[in-house]
Design goal:
The chain is α+β, with helices and mostly antiparallel strands. It has helices at about 5-10, 15-25, 35-45, 50-60, 65-75, 95-100, 100-115, 170-175; strands at about 85-90, 135-140, 155, 160. A four-stranded mixed beta sheet has the order 2-1-3-4, covered by helices on one side. The termini are far apart. The structure holds FE2/S2 (inorganic) cluster. FE2/S2 (inorganic) cluster binds near residues 94, 95, 96 and 146.
């Protein structure tokens, strides 16, 4: 992609996001490629997902080919290529949490948030099951590095520990 094309796309990027991107790149003076993950996080935080436009824009910005960025987006389950709900509930399903009841917990979160637990396609960049009003998505994730307080879930950026099925309704209300 040419620098001219890059600057045309940049016109559609909000100034505050662009400033954050430029600042992030300065942290990697030796290899701009190392800024790929930080830029993907910034993009998803802002837009909610990373579509082909985002992949191409970031690749051009870092002087890479789109496949260099595409392979990251499709490798890390954290990144999405489709929009999810406004609040994303991530329930850990790795051993400690699974043994502490995280499968029942996910079912309970789905029920309380109006999400069809079996709808949609989980993983591989697709949107997780989402409520009809677009307020909530619920998905399983792997270890959230808080095994000692299992079961845990991450709701947007907040970690909830020792979560019981009894408190799920109140937790969901906090985000409604
Ligand atoms: S197994 Fe759930 S936080 Fe580690």
């Amino acid at each position: 992609m040419t620098s001219e094309a890059t600057s045309q796309q940049a016109e559609h990027i909000p100034a505050d996001l662009l400033a954050e991107i430029e600042e992030a790149i300065t942290h990697y003076p030796v290899s701009k490629r190392s800024a790929s993950l930080p830029l993907l996080h910034l993009w998803q935080n802002h837009f909610g997902f990373i579509d082909d436009t985002g992949i191409e824009w970031i690749a051009a910005k870092l002087e890479l080919t789109p496949v260099n960025i595409y392979e990251l987006v499709t490798f890390y389950p954290w990144f999405r290529r489709e929009a999810a709900g406004k609040t994303v509930i991530r329930v850990c399903r790795t051993l400690a949490c699974a043994m502490a009841g995280s499968y029942a917990l996910r079912e309970k979160f789905c029920e309380a948030a109006g999400v069809d637990a079996h709808a949609g396609h989980h993983g591989f960049g697709h949107a997780p099951p989402t409520s009809a009003d677009g307020k909530f998505s619920v998905e399983f994730v792997e270890c959230l590095a808080s095994c000692g307080t299992a079961p845990v879930c991450l709701i947007n950026d907040e970690l909830h520990e020792n979560v019981t099925t009894e408190e799920v309704g109140d937790i969901v209300k906090q985000y409604s």
